[in-house]
Amino acid sequence: MWTFDKIPVERIKAATGVTLDPAWLDAAQASAVRLTNGCSAGLVSGQGLAITNSHCVADCAQVLSTQEDEDYARDGFLTDGRDEERKCAGVQAEVLLTIIDVTDQVRAAVVGKSGRDFLRVRDGAMAVAELAACGMDQTLRCQAIGFFRGGQYKVYKYRRYSDVRLVFAPEIAASAFGGDPDNFNFPRYAFDVAFVRLYVDGKPASTRSHLEWRDAPPVEGEPTFVVGSPGSTERQLTVAQLETQRDLVLPVTQLQRAEVRGRLIQFGREGTGEARIAAQALAWVQNSYKLGVGKQAALNDKAFMAAKRADEDALRAKVAADPALAAQTGAAWDEIAQAQHAAAELFVPWRMLESGAGLGSELYYYARLLVRAAVEREKPEAERLPEYVDARLPLIERKLADTPPADPALERIYLEHWLLKTRESLGVDSAPVKALLGRESPEAVAEALAKTDFGDPDMRMALWKGGLAAVQASEDPLIRFILRTDPVAREARAAYESQVSGPTDIAAEKIAKARFAVLGDSVYPDATFSLRLSYGKVAGWEERGRAIAATTTFAGFYDRVTGAEPFAAAPRWLEAKDRLKGDTVFDFTSTNDIIGGNSGSPVLDAKGRLIGVAFDGNLPSLGGAYGYDGATNRTVSLSAPAILQALDKVYERGDLVSELTGR
Amino acid sequence: MWTFDKIPVERIKAATGVTLDPAWLDAAQASAVRLTNGCSAGLVSGQGLAITNSHCVADCAQVLSTQEDEDYARDGFLTDGRDEERKCAGVQAEVLLTIIDVTDQVRAAVVGKSGRDFLRVRDGAMAVAELAACGMDQTLRCQAIGFFRGGQYKVYKYRRYSDVRLVFAPEIAASAFGGDPDNFNFPRYAFDVAFVRLYVDGKPASTRSHLEWRDAPPVEGEPTFVVGSPGSTERQLTVAQLETQRDLVLPVTQLQRAEVRGRLIQFGREGTGEARIAAQALAWVQNSYKLGVGKQAALNDKAFMAAKRADEDALRAKVAADPALAAQTGAAWDEIAQAQHAAAELFVPWRMLESGAGLGSELYYYARLLVRAAVEREKPEAERLPEYVDARLPLIERKLADTPPADPALERIYLEHWLLKTRESLGVDSAPVKALLGRESPEAVAEALAKTDFGDPDMRMALWKGGLAAVQASEDPLIRFILRTDPVAREARAAYESQVSGPTDIAAEKIAKARFAVLGDSVYPDATFSLRLSYGKVAGWEERGRAIAATTTFAGFYDRVTGAEPFAAAPRWLEAKDRLKGDTVFDFTSTNDIIGGNSGSPVLDAKGRLIGVAFDGNLPSLGGAYGYDGATNRTVSLSAPAILQALDKVYERGDLVSELTGR
């Protein structure tokens, strides 16, 4: 997961035999797209066409299904041509232009700061750096990002596309064939591809830089390069932090996911309408849940933790042996361990009241964003919560204008679940729970909140423009609830920031500096949803003595079809069986190091041509959140030849095939 | 949790100042009732009347609600007199007569046995001992029980009452006031009491031995004695076993509970009928879930585990220092640790396919019992699964005859959940999952199975009498499914028994012997749902520097009422407010060491008089599964005076008051 300002060209050459020259890297960067819904994509034509995954546009497809009998998420969004391309609300596309190092100015700002103050000043300095780089230019997006847990700060400057339209997404029976059971599994037979198009001023964007499509299939052993924006890894956490993840964060989160999963499954049984409403939400929860299972398994693995401990001990020993370094690093590891004791008390209130408040309710999330922005805008910048400084307000306004519609039944489930779990975990008699519920039950409060009009964009924009006065005058139940209960959320946040995340981030910076001093920058930073290059090769792996081949074929897909969900093939695919070549490589695995956020990343060959689109990792790769193991961690991709053939023979989209191949 | 054949009278005198003479102990034993649904009770009149908890008879109350508008579980089972007492299907009552030591004969039988063979022979020898003690006398029940993880074997011989009728149970708003949020909490205001009556030949049983009711309330500091049958503790597990509980058994179980809890909550939202159906099931799952949270918290507590490790190290050091003991104990701890490695692979298949198969489906449980009994009865005794030897068949027949009715909607939820989780945890491509599902989905298989007629007692008894031929000829979908899939369950069991539970039990016996040799029998054995005496005193505790008082009052109850579930008082209680004395002690806590199974246990004073009925533990007591901490673990009981006053003033049951007080 190398950043584009620090590609280890020699190392890659040694490992793969391929020399990535500046032209190769520039072309890859210029074709790489970050979608603001948390996915990656790649430009594949000069008319703004980008390839990504179907699961990355599922929300969009569902939102576009406005007619009673339409279900684009289930049935696919299968346009006949460019006129039918439709805008995905809330999704923006970003292409990286430059990377600006702002480490010195951020570090200078925080000198002598501690606890919450450190976080506020640091985030403020980052916002200032963003504004300096982009100004108020709406065609640009600047994002300041901390790397190496505070070892470096960079501004990533992007070309911003705010009009992203859905071009093509297959039926869920094809894109998610195998469903949750096959998720993170291999052999795999998922056609998880979609196309979107970037528009500027109502016309397809002109994108001269784009990827060339390769006809030949991926071959076992050939070098592969994944270009995309991995979301988040935690490989530089200390052992004390990993233990908190293992014993507290993951268990609490997983239990809540399991319960809401049960609710969504059962809700979906109530009728076909409910099943449709529940489908996307359930897929999301199941995916998160399985990810959590993989992460928990990695941390429960005693050998894995022992290796982490050994790494940490080795670094600490080197630091201790160097008096200057020891003086500068101080008791950083102990400070982090100390913060974990505080986390044992403060994590759950922080999660339930602040960071995870609403537990899935979209409207709660956006309504709080609006209410807080209204409150914070009244204050001088220096006193605001850092995410509401002036430089950040335009993005908040866009978010509110673009808030995707939320289903009231789901909203009620999420809100009720949130309030029940908050009461359960903080206790009936705790002050926050009394503030949230008063003398009401969680069920009654959730029912009342779900009646909010916040789903209405006009209402939101009126409140945004009206500022604090309008917000305070609102009679909307959700707005009133947030106004009334926000103090307890802010209190939980203040406690957590001053005793956990503040001290942790300060100490992590010290450790990052020590690590640089000892190891140099021979390692790449944790993933931060910023553009990265991962090199690897097409390869299977061995699982309990059994060899897993690196590729599957169309023929294998038809063998796996049982007719029962989620192993029922789409009718269109059954009908096309004889027109497809059985030995075509369908999905394949490679040793590239990726993580959630990389979904939709183009997979390139030695010449920079597209050979596939990454859509998943294998089960062992889920522990990759904490550390990459080349022996077993695999990226799962859909091959470019399979896409072309299916577009042609299954979906009869000769127009897209022509656009992609230039033929 | 002392057994009645080993009451440490001197120790109790030293601790409490009370001398428990043989008359006291005999009277307590003769009044103590074990209910076969997993609860305790106490005889409180000469006409077979027994006190227990309302939550212990909730299933019975629900089953008795046959009319559309009846909901005894919600509204209470409030008879007007003895004519209206109604039989609880499937519930039997047992009063302990004698305890017979059979250690030598069981030990002799297993000499030289290992693995599965050890388990089979041991269980067989226990069944033989039962038969020898009770014969086929239907008024007796003999149960062979291993104590100290195999250090001792005893036959508990009970007088058996098969006709247990429900006399009185209050509304759930009273019995479970505070609901899940207040469960395991204190201060507490639950009126969790019920009365049942034992019948013989259609008439109330004559029960000369019964408890005297005390008028005066429990007083802070006074000695308390809880007499009941705690279900199960695991205090003698090795550290390796505790780690398996912490990292594998509890997490897997809790996640499944959380998901099914979500399903039941959502199912209950579909309508009032569904809400009623879901209520008991949900209460059960929530209770188990909260218990699991407490157990997990104990095992995640590093200080707790360090103390366990220190105890184990101390015992191992003493064993190592004694060559004879060392030779006899061998590598027992290492053998158990080795078995844990096997458990890492084998626990989940064993749980999903064998020990927890059906995950809550009553009909699956009973149907498999019947199918297996039919298969096993065809074999010579020595080749059968040990639970199907001749001595055990009458109990199985009674269970099948008395199987409580199951709701088809719940059955479908449980079965679907089970099949989904089995597929998820074992994998789509695993042989057992292929055997369970074939080419069908879990949803379709569950739907088909839920159409079983196994809920019909005539059908069950016809199959029981018809034996294997009838079972094999059955076209019932559940019976056919079990016949078809039982081999994979047996295989998972065989693997688990030969590599995990067999070796573990053999090694545990060695450790038990070593512990006796080093410590004598100065400790009581782990709970085994056998009669125990726990001594303690009325006492509160301190929580994060805050003192929790030992008693609550009626006045406090009315203060806590909010009107919103689960803090809405029953109308009858609101109406009676002025007739109740506000300062009456309602619930109280004491230092007695109890665990699930003790629910419904009489709480006695120094003179052996009834001062309350135990119904819960506090939150810290949940870790009591692994070790009792006298500083914080508390039993929660409902006071005898509160019961009498409410029977009189709230429920107007002067007849019961007279029967209880003899006035």
| Mean pLDDT over the full residue set of chain A | 94
Q: Note the gap between the termini of chain A.
A: 34 Å
From the 3D coordinates, which CATH architecture of the largest domain in chain A would you assign?
A: Beta Barrel
Radius of gyration of chain A: 25 Å
Major sheet details of chain A: 11 strands, antiparallel
Q: What is the overall number of helices of chain A?
A: 24
Summary tags:
663 residues; alpha+beta; eleven-stranded antiparallel beta sheet; 16% strand; globular
Structural overview:
Two copies of one chain form a homodimer. The first copy, chain A, folds into three domains: 2-92 and 162-234 and 525-661, Thrombin, subunit H; 97-161; 355-501, no CATH class. In chain A, strands 2, 3, 4, 5, 6, 7, 8, 9, 10, 11 and 12 form an eleven-stranded antiparallel β-sheet that branches. In chain A, helix 13 (332-355) crosses helix 16 and helix 14 (362-377) packs antiparallel against helix 15. With 663 residues, chain A is α+β, with helices and mostly antiparallel strands. In chain A, a hairpin with a 4-residue loop joins strand 8 and strand 9 (152-161). The first copy, chain A, contains 24 helices and 21 strands. Chain A binds chain B through residues 178, 180-182, 185, 247-248, 251, 254-256, 258-267, 270, 296, 300, 413, 417, 423-424, 427-428, 439-441, 443-444, 562-567, and chain B through 178, 180-182, 185, 247-248, 251, 254-256, 258-267, 270, 296, 300, 413, 417, 423-424, 427-428, 439-441, 443-444, 562-566.
